[in-house]
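Case 364 in the screening queue. Each case pairs one protein sequence with one candidate compound; here the compound is S-adenosyl-L-homocysteine. For every case the pipeline is the same: read the inputs, emit a complex structure as tokens, and attach any notable structural observations.

Predict complex for case 364.
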Amino acid sequence: MNRDEILTWLREEDPEKLQGLWTLADTARQQGVGDAVHLRGLIELSSHCVRSCAYCGLRCGRKPLSRYRMSPDEVVDCARQGIRLGYGTVVLQTGEDPGLRAPDVAEIVRRIKALPTESGVPLAVTLSLGERADDELALWKQAGANRYLLRFETSDPLLFARIHPSLPGRPSDRVAMLRRLRTLGYEIGSGVMVGIPGQAWGTLADDLLLFRELDLDMIGIGPYLPHPDTPLGRGDPGFGPLEPGQQVPSTAQMTCKAVAIARILCPQANIPSTTALATLDPDHGREDGLSRGANVVMPNLTPVRYREKYDIYPDKACLHETAETCAGCLRGRIEQLGRVVGSGQGGRMGTEACSSVAQIAVSG
Ligand code: SAH
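Case 364 output:
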């Protein structure tokens, strides 16, 4: 699929034609990764953050927001619960928190990898801790971490600089960090928000092409959800949307189009149906994501008492549901779609997650 075809699909509004895109994506998903839906238990272990991202409710300039950092014992307990619920992976996610010291993270990873599981296969550990130094990333890899998630958020460097300011003396280059993570031996994941103010059609098309260029193992795509305590959410000067006609809308349908195209470009990648999509469309979001290209869901393992404080965007789906309730509900939804819950770690399938040539006829 080339850039023009991507743009045509992104702008397509005819439901019948879009049905063609959903079918192409579902076929690519079936051929690329099969019918298994993998469950990754999400542990949001710290809400402290040194960054001032214009979209995110955890931004450090925001007051008042009571912050938390879980103890290593609490994190390992969550991972144990993930094993009890049959998950093959835990994802450790935080704001960018230097107070979370690298040796402590390494120790948490080692303890999680040593937990006994029924199959004897240890949990896969995915880290999503923001931008950290190479020696820290290497340390965590040695401790047994398998994967790293770091969304590049947008392929437009000017938009990126505006919404994700660098820290003093540390220019932010997430694409470069993803390449280093790959060299260190991590499976790498990235992604973007659909409809972030300032995102033009061509920008989103370039985001999707960059997924393929980076040969991502995991691709997370969710709608942008405005947070009222952020510059973007308030629409502060310099943070408004583009002219109508140029700005990509942050709708569930647009998110599904991006998921579907990502699947066609990267048939073997692991692609979640995101919580943000379920938040925007509580009735159909999860299912639409799964039937339009996604093959992963990330149920929350964070203790309910901390959840509300991990306030990246408002009204997050399943905010008050315990891990058990979430697990049961998701299994039901997956089976209703005629899919099966994946077993094991559910890692990268082939040598190339993304296709270098279009393998499927894609024009519509
Ligand atoms: N500190 C880590 C994890 C951030 S939270 C990091 O920066 O990588 C994970 C993702 O949530 C972000 O990468 C971003 O794409 C998404 N996110 C943040 N704020 C959001 C918002 N207002 N709407 C939708 N998604 C958001």
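Case 364 observations:
- The domain at 3-341 is CATH 3.20.20.70 (TIM Barrel).
- The first helix runs from residue 3 to 11.
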